[in-house]
Fold this sequence. Notes:
The complex is a heterotrimer of chains A (about 375), B (about 325) and C (about 250).
Chain A: H1 3-17, H2 19-39, E1 47-52, H3 58-69, E2 73-79, H4 85-91, E3 96-100, H5 104-110, E4 114-121, H6 125-146, E5 151-152, E6 155-156, E7 160-167, H7 180-207, H8 209-214, H9 220-250, H10 258-281, H11 286-304, H12 316-322, H13 326-340, H14 344-368
Helix pairs in contact in A: 1-9, 2-7, 2-9, 7-9, 7-10, 7-11, 7-13, 9-10, 10-11, 10-13, 10-14, 13-14
Chain B: E1 20-31, E2 34-45, E3 49-53, H1 60-67, E4 75-80, E5 83-84, H2 89-95, E6 96-99, H3 111-121, H4 130-140, H5 153-165, E7 171-175, H6 183-198, E8 202-207, E9 218-223, E10 226-231, H7 233-238, E11 244-248, H8 252-260, E12 265-271, E13 274-279, H9 286-299, E14 306-310, H10 314-323
Parallel strand pairs in B: 3-8, 3-9, 6-7, 7-8
Antiparallel strand pairs in B: 1-2, 1-4, 4-5, 9-10, 11-13, 11-14, 12-13
Chain C: E1 4-15, E2 18-29, E3 33-38, H1 44-51, E4 59-64, E5 67-68, H2 73-79, E6 80-83, H3 95-105, H4 110-124, H5 139-150, E7 157-161, H6 169-184, E8 188-192, H7 196-199, E9 204-209, E10 212-217, H8 219-226, H9 231-238
Parallel strand pairs in C: 3-8, 3-9, 6-7, 7-8
Antiparallel strand pairs in C: 1-2, 1-4, 4-5, 9-10
Helix pairs in contact in C: 3-4, 5-6
Amino acid sequence: MTALGGLLRKEWFHIRRDRRTATVLVALPVVQVLLFGYAIRTDVNDVRLAVVDPAPNSVTLTIRNRFAAAGVFRIVAVVPRAEDLDPLLQSGAAQQAIVFGHDFAADLGRGEPAQLLVITDATEPNTGSLLQTYAEAVIQGYERETMVGRPGPFGPGRTISIIPQVRLRFNPTRESSNLFVPGLMAFVLTIISSLMTAISLTREKETGTMEALLVSPLRPWEIIVGKVTPYLAVGFISMIAVLVEARLVFRVPLRGSVLLLLLEGALFILVSLALGLLISARTSSQRLAMLGALLGTMLPNVLLSGFIFPLESMPAPLQWISYVIPGRWFVTIARGIMLKGIGLGYVWRETLYLAAMAVVLLAASVRSFHERLE
Amino acid sequence: MSAANGPAKAGPSEAASHRDVVRVDSVSKDFGSTVALDKVSFAVEKGELFGFIGPDGAGKTTLFRILVSLLVPGAGRASVLDLDVVRDYRALRQRVGYMAGRFSLYPDLSVEENLTFFASVFGTTIQREYEQIKPIYTQLEPFKDRRAAALSGGMKQKLALCCALVHRPDILFLDEPTTGVDAVSRREFWDLLGRLKEGGLTTVVSTPYMDEATRCDRVALMHRGRLLDVDTPDAITRGFDRPLLGVRAKERYKALLALRKFEHAHSAYPFGDVIHYTDKRTGVQPDRIANDLKAFLTANGFADVSVEPLTPTVEDSFIARTDSDPESRIPNPGRVA
Amino acid sequence: MSELVIQASELTRTFGDFTAVDRISFDVKAGEVFGFLGANGAGKTTAMRMLIGLLNPTSGTARVAGHDIYTESEAIKRSIGYMSQRFSLYEDLTPRENIRLYGGIYGLTLAQIRDRTDVMLKRLGLTQVAGQAVRSLPLGWRQKLAFSVALVHQPRIVFLDEPTSGVDPITRRQFWELIYEAASNGTTVLVTTHYMDEAEYCDRISIMVAGRIAAIGAPADLKREHGVASIDELFVGLARPEVPSSP
Lengths: 374, 337, 247
């Protein structure tokens, strides 16, 4: 067996046998996706609905009852004026609201357009769209039953217009869970590639086996490749696991080329690996390596990649900093490929940035690898 | 002083000769304000079993790391197998066997896996080198699937030795291989080293245990970065320049304190149940000194007094040497004069 | 006559299937220097931990400084001193600060601490370096200081775990003189060591093999009984291949 082969085999043993590492590598993608996926999905049952009904009558009552009927919504308050809604929505007593126009029933009777205002809170994007959909269904159902065939201002049988109004509060993301997945992939890959690599190298230093490796014919590049390759492989598998999970469990779309996405992922993994190597070159302690990986790669990737907080709403200096955060480019690329279905033609610039980072960082990490103990 | 012991068997490559395989010339090394090595010079001959004897902080590990090219000397030069440790480190790393201090193996790998790995790094396999490592490996073989972490201290060191040997190095550097290991395993380890020497392998070992010095061809006594002496164990003990006497008495501690107050006392050190005593006077026969001491102690009320001349050990020599070290700032009650 | 400060009877400790300490019984008299010897894994560290109240026995009884080790472990901790090989002093504090810390922990008044500090530093010759961080002192000085600190509250018994590991020969002997001094002042000293020659410094020793006490008594008596010239030889003769769980 060659020296490099022996090194790879040894690394494989370490990964398999270190319970903690194995748990992290296997469980991490799964747990993260589930956590984020479910955490940001609000409960689509029992949505608290407030009703503004200035002139309650049989018509509005019927419609209100239809809303409550299916068990998706629960009417928590009925108030006469729109102004009364504010405290309810602010306090969270109500999540969504419908507002009947002032002369709803009268207008309906006269065959004039009747307004139903559907108020959704932008911080709850899922329930917002749900409400809208449901509102349409209820109204259409009502219209069908009560005015079948009668021509109205909005077309045959359509008299009630549903006007959606979205209330904006401070809203970090107006996006749905779809947009989390690329950021999540970046996060998972960073943990695996940067953190694990850094730990693996510093563990050798801590146990003293690094000395034995150095005083051997092994060249620095061999040691690095031997250490890094298993995590490249594991990272790749994790990426696929996250994608599969996202598709199957949350039905996140993948509109673009899978191959391109995987290649971009591999590029991102390389960058993260190089960062892990650089971190481990500066310290002999596993704990410090973990801390370094946390502060130097994971935190920036979470905060400044657009994963959770949109870059567009950040102050300019932070946006500039984000240009050097690899995660930022990967998230952009991945979102583009997954959600917009675009190809290399559109993301070549970002790909180039990542590639450049990979080259620079890998070169730097090979240089920083000490062939001696000092 | 040469240390040829009988006909040396042909080594791995060249015919037996007395060329130096290690040459160290005035090597110094500091780490910040700490001086780890201070102008160290010595040479090791081919086929020697050479020992560095000294406590923690003597500089043994730093010296070994320089010799295997893990560190660069601050000053001075060193060469191993005619290869400069700084310039020719790549070539050097192909040919040395190194055992770093304190169990530097992979704890989660088995005995066999550790050995296979180290063999592969040098482009060979256990099968190919089996004859070479047999004397040691046969002791390990029954446990070849056991994780290294689960081995006892003595077994770990034997495994580490095996891993260092498996690629047939031309010289072996073992840094404190017996530290922290029980007395029985220590003996067995030195027996193994003896067998390796018979096969012609040059071995350089370090140890804090003074009694292990006698198992080496030559030793270098080290203390606080300096070499105190480099010679065969016999020559070192012969260099002890005063008569050494062993004093026994019933109340050991009180006897020790009393002896130090004796008018002619030069040093009095406890060695278990015996006090090692040296006298200030020169030219006085040991018997006369013995009588003087007996008289003195009995006069001071000590019972069961016995005084005998002793042959100095390496430890006695070490103490005598470090005693005169001006660096020793703590008041040293052992040294009276 | 001589009071017994440690009394152990059938003391046992198991970890799952593995018996680390197997029904050991022994006594230690006040003012004795008692050597606790044995190979790594023979059980001496576990036995010591039980005696100082850090670990509960699985069965058996023992009294240390007049207190029961099951029910009065806190009282034991207050009446003993302990110096472990791995850790004893805070490296970034000065000798003075270390003494102050431990003195405070053991309930000494500031005046007492002040007095003892001066005496201690003078005895050890450390007055010059009293203001330097401990990490800058040579190993031997640190060990001696650690020993003194373990005695700062003048305990009846002091437990020392491999106190002279790696230390140079002169300092080792200076250390043992400190032990002698403490013993002559009435402190009982229980010490474990790897150096068989140090066994000879003790009044009595015990040798543990595979969890049992294989020999106990005064070094001179043991040597005579077994017909050997040194404790090292005695040890080698007694230590047999350890239990099948470890080679």
